[in-house]
Amino acid sequence: MTHPPRRVAVLSGVPSREHDVSIASGRAVAAALRSRRSDVLEVHVAADGRWSLADHAAVADTPRSAAITSLLHEDDTPRVDVVFIALHGAWGEDGTLQGFLETLGLPYTGSGVAASALAMDKERSKEVLAHHGVATPAWCGIDAASWSRDRAGELARAAALPGPYVAKPAREGSSFGVALPDDVGGLAAVLDAALDGPGARVLVEHRVTGVEVTCPVLGNHDAALRTLPLVEIVPHEGTFFDFHAKYEGGSDEICPARVSDDVAARVQHAAELAHRVLGCDGMSRSDFIVDAADTPWYLETNTIPGMTPASLSPLSAAAAGLPFPELCEALVELAMARHVTGASGLGSTATGIL
Hints:
Helix content is 38%, strand content 21%. By secondary structure, it is α+β, with helices and mostly antiparallel strands.
């Protein structure tokens, strides 16, 4: 290490269904960074939205922005050099927090505002990447207002896709809310339930079957990238990689994935293209299905991949010779480099691992 020890705030929690996963990510990252001599400040977001330092009382009844400012600043001076974002799902991963940290002038890990917002929106990211030649299953998006106004018309539009179907929230993570209707009747029931609320939006896709793989990419989008080995996901039960399979031991993760070198190269190329086109920084992880004809189909890109012991990106990095503590440190250095240069150059540690 050629730089002084970093002062790092690790943010985890968030008032969403991904709260517990985020807390687990934050604890793992904090321990890893401490093992690399970083001075770590753990900041937790409770399920009710209140902020606190780890093992301290929450900042009660305080606007979110004021709570963050009070925890990360002291006498108008930043208490930390960089923020490690381990918040999954809405607000933490969609560009909102990133924008606030920009106003505070604090470097942070992962992608910036625009890339975070774009990748979080599965429909918009598919539109962009399809334009760039990335194969992705046929889809349509339906929102609650349109469904309420013209249910029959919207159902006909979705049913025009080849079945069977996948229906999932357009802006959600960890496979929450994913349904697999086989026919139009099942799809209608799923949409009735999923769109029963203002602001809801569902992405409906043709369901591609095959081998589920994921590919992490490390680096800032306008500089050198390192595309990591593919991980194959084999759920123990059910037909897709749901929350139980991801976080509760319901799947086997095999790295490198059991696909041909040609398929692996095509998946890695598509994942790298997604990282660059969406404008991702730090690390992204793109998910694919490889069908029986060996065609990789792009599903989505995660800009804050899970960092728990069960997470896929650390598994891939370890297979590439990058242990978890060094991976966490590399993400910190990529964040510092982007902030210092105003672009996406690589710091000393990051350069060494790419």
